């Protein structure tokens, strides 16, 4: 009990003995720190068990950036694994983009977390994987559009890191706010296939042998930050120096403004997204995972910043293909007289749409093209390396050269 | 003029807007310009006038109040339980501003 006896209305709604300190955005309940921590953990446990995310005896990698979401994820999973005896071995998997002054600091946080949580840590660098660090990419192509590279590289890097560890399941720290943002973005873009996929808690894609899941899918960002604060977790915050103003900005502010007016809005949007997914017809081939990026640049360490921008730009390449797939589904909704034409047109994209997955001729990564996205980007970069040294007037070489390389795809 | 001693903390990336310093011990005027007891709303405008890095002020306030996505804890309690910006400051209060907007 606190020194002065607070009135009943100020007490925690659960234990009714201690003063409430948190207003839960999800339920509007007033809770004390201890009850909040317990409730937060048990809800994530419920998410995990309802969706049978983990198998006893398996090894699962946690995509760890050192930021709040992945740090809370690692901490909660450590707690739950002990409390409920999941029998899962968690490993921290970090990607080093090679951004001086940004990633090197957050990696120090991950290293401390590995010790704190007694987890193995694997750090994999872009330089080691692709021969290019992000610092070098930016030096080559400039600050515009570098998120494309980072997004494509990161997605593969997590897969490659997991494969190296002999792991087939990576969990990421995406929270309810992130998913609500993605739902809104996909809705505004009219991107049905991605709208269908973005809410699923487990993403298994034909283009990747590694499954991804999001145990914090129903956890509010507010509660994640409060949990980290009350548990005094060691996390790192900064913006990616190459992407200070996030692309997600507008969707993000919309979500945050909605939350201010009506906190349940975030979860409502996530649920709406799930409902939409049920309404969108299954694509031929099933699973809907025939595209390369099953989620928009998922697992980006810089959260709002690089994640959005990277995913957005990286997805551009697939945009046409996705639009085509959606077209087939959209015409079904239009009922008027022109229907016959619609029907005819409808059949072609469906047949064309079936992507045959093969291996990248260069690196062996799964892809529907001759070369995977990363190899295509690297080729563009490498091509420009000598040109840059020859041309004294560096101005146009940087940007234009990089885009040239891209347009080959 | 009477002042109130309080501690203001910034985290989650907000410290970058306040001379990269997490904790600030401040003496806040006990009353706002219209003579009302100093509350969180007044504190926020005080911080904007005196402490925040001027050109990045927009990352801290929006439409005259704390930007959406920034949590405020008054003595470790959610400000939503304390009346938000109408909470009247008491001596030795600890006010923490945490941004949820930065990377995860």
- What structural class do you assign from the helix and strand content of chain B? mainly beta
Largest interface: A-B, 41 and 21 residues
Taking all residues together, what is the mean pLDDT of chain B? 92
Give the helix level of chain B as a range of percent: 10-25%
Q: Count of helical segments of chain A? A: 15
The beta-strand count of chain A equals: 10
The H/E string of chain B reads: EEHEEEEE
Terminal residue distance of chain A: 66 Å
Q: What would you report as the Rg of chain B, rounded to the nearest angstrom? A: 13 Å
Structural class of chain A: alpha/beta
Oligomer: heterodimer
- Helix content range of chain A: 40-55%
Mean pLDDT over the full residue set of chain A: 78
Shape of chain B: globular
Low-confidence stretches of chain B: none
- What radius of gyration of chain A results from the CA coordinates? 23 Å
Cross-link (Glycyl lysine isopeptide (Gly-Lys) (interchain with K-? in acceptor proteins)) (chain B): 104
Pfam families (chain B): Urm1
Family (chain B): Belongs to the URM1 family.
Organism (chain B): Discina gigas
Short overview:
The complex is a heterodimer of chains A (409) and B (104). Chain A has 409 residues and is α/β, with parallel strands linked by helices.
Describe this structure in words.
The complex is a heterodimer of chains A (409) and B (104). By secondary structure, chain A is an alpha/beta fold. Chain A is built from 15 helices and ten strands. In chain A, the strands form three sheets. A six-stranded mixed sheet of chain A has the order 5-4-3-6-8-7, sandwiched between helices. In chain A, strands 1-2 form a two-stranded antiparallel ribbon. With 104 residues, chain B is mostly beta strands. Chain B contains one helix and seven strands, in the order E-E-H-E-E-E-E-E. In chain B, the strands form two sheets. Chain B has a five-stranded mixed sheet with strand order 2-1-7-5-6, with no helix packed on it. In chain B, strands 3-4 form a two-stranded antiparallel sheet. In chain B, a hairpin with a 2-residue loop joins strand 5 and strand 6. The termini of chain B are far apart. Chains A and B meet through strand 1, helix 2, helix 9, helix 10 and helix 12 of A and strand 6 and strand 7 of B. Chain B: It is found in: Cytoplasm.
